[in-house]
């Protein structure tokens, strides 16, 4: 009897964790096509609290599972709010995980986490130590003090951190009261009085000061151009072209795959057709770069990609599901020996794809199966409505009658979190569903799919997570060693 | 010729139903047309007025029969072989009727429900054409001066005849449903179910027109069931199953999925059985070349669901435009009572006999239905008194 109970407990724990990790892959608490932001945030918050309360150690280890930044930040905050665990070993692992994750987050997100410590009134010894350590690890604190001024100040004041050099007076005593020897701090001070100094500041800070000086937008954009980060360049393409007549040159080689896909989809159809070759090569290169970092080689792969109207996302996540589908298309075609894409509404050229029409997954899925793929990856939000729930039935019958030996693997990758189900919406039980935020995570997510299928045991999932934790910490240690000898500041990648 | 175009029975010939999409309690069923008609196009014309007064006959500002309602938009219909996209935008700004300022509000005076604006162009007020026909039922009132009827009823008939309806935006679910609805490539129309009860059908001739008019469904008016049944739970997301036994290969699977699609279409046609396939009484409204604009109503039997609507039928029998409104039970009852009165020559005793009730019952029913103003006060009072004593 006890054994049966234990098996059941393990099963529940596994299901809970798979659900949670899956949610952490996709959910960002933002509005989706079918769900509003409120429902999303309530749902994901509940999941966080539930897992933290019941599976604390695994909750912390989820940080290393390759989940998205939003959920990493949430986990860090919740862990710090809950205090340190009792066991020495757990305490050490958790602390290392939090510190490593915070370092790996994009700076704006990491600073927001530290700022939220104050908003949520988390101020224990561990939280202060984490903040201190993060500050100590920053390559150029003066830059952070200018670009993330209020956040850095919040972290310093809240965590009682001593700042070196002129930073203390700059942040705490009021920047007006003296001149600085640190060039960036001095530029910040001067930029309040002269127009020339504005151009030495980061774009986000300079923008407001330029408006205060009444600098014409076109002049400002032209002169600030060298200071733009890659993300800012991508973001400014349209508006800068409108305001100043020319868009800042963007290095498509450096943008990440999903960002690039979203950028391409944001272009007008004519512009996309015109620049088709450039976009195509950039996307293919970005996919190749992802595979260099996380090599995967797949056999005969068919992708069933959803470009129905619901792939247009929401105001907060414009075209994200479609962007993920497009990025997955390039990634899978680069990773597999034989590849074919099956869109729900056929497109002649993937770069020109648009979100239109009903969701008919059944037809492309049948085509993909008829093509004889080893692996079928479905990228969709899980709302198939032509006919409704056809995919669930189709895959069930396919598994039971046509392919009981599982010669063809089926995976459903879902970029949309369904608040009511506390998980990405699935196509029935015959296809494992995994969440995803960026297509770059696809290799990780495909590795996780076997847990979503329900075949693997809890112990295996725990082994998987602890292996990821080891890798995560090793990668962090490597990164710190390479940055340690006071090298030039890492490129700022603003969100 | 004209008779053939006049509808006797609504049929979805040349149209196909696709599987539904569900949002909350609302179920939207796409209507597809495989061979769209190019020579009948619709465009929307917006009116930003608090109220519109439509002159049904005679001049705009002269007293006469008027139809008063909130009308957010009209439809401009153009037909003929020469069709160009220039119709969009260019003729939308045409002056239509007259605007009058009434305090902070503006009121639009419109000329006729359906008005020819050009050789091959017609401006119509969608659904109001049908509603006007419904309100005009027995509008003249008693044609024999029976002693029971009030003086107003004898001299002015049912004037003013009033019905209420619910604007689409009164239901937040409808907004969500229309926003998240995924339009099909060849979609020309939609059936709207609330709590799986057919509320309205809207069909046009061309898919692009439907795409442009999709969101205007939020501004149109619906039967009160939109709100009343809006409080019921969500409509179930149905799923059909495939028969394992019939499948031995991928080809079989494909056949079965096709069959599933067909089953969905049949099922939705069955769900809409209260409108399609029943006898309708239609009345011609406007002859527009090969097209005939008409309005129709179903049997007005209180125990059944009843719709009024308007339709355009081509000479070749295709249904090129359809818009319907589901009457509420009370509205049906009112129309039914008037119909029964008219059939018995407005004689109360004969009508009561027809309905299998007493004369007092009938008088009270008339009062409860909102037609108390047709009868003399003492007739009402006497009936009420006798009914109360009898109990």
Count up the helices of chain B.
12
Largest sheet: number of strands, sense, barrel closure of chain A: 5 strands, parallel
Percent in strands of chain B:
25-35%
Q: What radius of gyration of chain A results from the CA coordinates?
A: 24 Å
Give the CA-based shape of chain A: globular
Number of strands of chain A: 7
Total domains of chain B, how many?
A: 2
| Structural domain count of chain A | 2
Taking the sheet with the most strands of chain B, its summary is: 9 strands, antiparallel
Q: How many strand units of chain B?
A: 19
Structural class of chain B: alpha+beta
Mean pLDDT of chain A: 90
Q: Roughly how much helix do the residues of chain B carry, as a percent range? A: 25-40%
Shape of chain B: globular
Q: What is the terminal-to-terminal distance of chain B?
A: 58 Å
The topology string of helices and strands of chain A comes to HHHHHHHHHHHHHHHHHEHEHEHEEEEHH
Report on the structure:
The complex is a heterodimer of chains A (495) and B (391). Chain A is of the alpha/beta class and 495 residues long. Chain A has two domains: 243 residues, no CATH class; 200 residues, Rossmann fold (3-Layer(aba) Sandwich), CATH 3.40.50. Chain A is built from 22 helices and seven strands. A five-stranded parallel beta sheet of chain A has the order 2-1-3-4-7, sandwiched between helices. In chain A, helix 7 crosses helix 9 and helix 15 packs across helix 18. Chain A starts with a helix and ends in a 12-residue tail after the last helix. Chain B folds into two domains: 270 residues, no CATH class; 44 residues, no CATH class. In chain B, strands 1, 2, 3, 13, 14, 16, 17, 18 and 19 form a nine-stranded antiparallel beta sheet that branches. Chain B is 29% helix and 28% strand. Chain B contains twelve helices and 19 strands. Chain B is globular and about 80 Å long. With 391 residues, chain B is α+β, with helices and mostly antiparallel strands. At the A-B interface, helix 19 and helix 20 of A face helix 8 of B.
